[in-house]
Amino acid sequence: MNHILKNCLYYGASRLGELPFLRARFAARAVIILLHEIQPDCQSELMTGTSVSLFEYLLDWLRREGWSIVSLDECLEKLATNDRSRRYAVLSFDDGYRDNVSVALPILERHNAPFMMYVPTGALTRSMQTWWLGLRKLLLARDEVAIEALGRRFHCSDLRSKRSALSEVTDWVHQDYRRSAMLAPTFEQNGISLAALNDAYFLDERELRILARHPLASIGGHTTSHAALTTLDKSLARAELADNRDYLENLLQLSVRHVAYPYGSWGPREEHLAKEVGFQTAVTTRQSRLHDHTVNHFALPRIGVYSPSGFRARMSGIMEAVR
């Protein structure tokens, strides 16, 4: 019921946002769009990514509505020079998923759409503790799943109940990201290797080197281990940012000037650290658009894509106005 109500609210907001006087009132000059996986079969992945059809829809919608898809550097340059000739959209992909190349890249090429990929070191070295992939695999493989750290046993024999269980455990982790380590015994007991999942889902070093030379691609940092930076002490948080930047620059032989905070976990300290280690911008998961040249380059907001109506509602500015 909550899902239906949310879709109805998004649909209503998106239709309101199409009214000319509201569009003028809440018009933004630029937007950074947040994406992760682009999945050919979302059902088999428990609806955890963006479907190909939704991805195609958002690209078509942007072009139709007069948004120019540009690189992050070009977008920020247009804002800095107060260029009001167009509205600008930046596409960003977090984590370095392999389907961003195998599935999304041909579509991006067809649209001649530049994009930014934010990559954590651990995804490439297969050392990242991808608890969300472990949970997905566990729930897909079992009709009864015990999460001892949460004190819950889930009976999930269909996709709907599996998605519900995944949502509940994910929400529990998001309340305190240090809880993710508490899932390790469950994965071990069920024979789930996070390293193997990393190998299946993420680009490797050779593939990223090839992608980095693509004319549409830009590569940014995403920390070493994908840790929530606000849960770490200052020295560890700084090392997560600096070591990731050094690793990517050595691997790619390119300057890495942009970073994304994992989980959108950041504050003034993280902004200072990102600047201190040499990044020029940092993006968050705060849902908003860019309105003027005075935007904080170390707390750039992004818009997530979860459904056509939700995307249109966020792009309209109505959701921002309500908040």
What would your notes on this structure say?
The chain is an alpha/beta fold. It has 2 domains: 2-127 and 202-322, Glycoside hydrolase/deacetylase (TIM Barrel), CATH 3.20.20.370; 131-196, no CATH class. It is 48% helix and 17% strand. The strands form 3 sheets. Strands 1, 4, 5, 6, 9, 10, 11 and 12 form an 8-stranded parallel beta sheet that branches. Helix 3 packs parallel to helix 5. The longest helix is centred in the last third of the chain and has 19 residues, at 234-252. It is globular.
Ends distance: 22 Å
Largest sheet: 8 strands, parallel
What's the helical proportion of residues? 40-55%
Order of helices and strands: HHEEEHEHEHEHHEEHHHHEHEHEEHH
CATH class of the largest domain: Alpha Beta
CATH architecture of the largest domain: Alpha-Beta Barrel
Q: Which structural class fits the helix and strand makeup? A: alpha/beta
What proportion of the residues form beta strands (DSSP E)?
A: 15-25%
| CATH H-level superfamily of the largest domain | Glycoside hydrolase/deacetylase
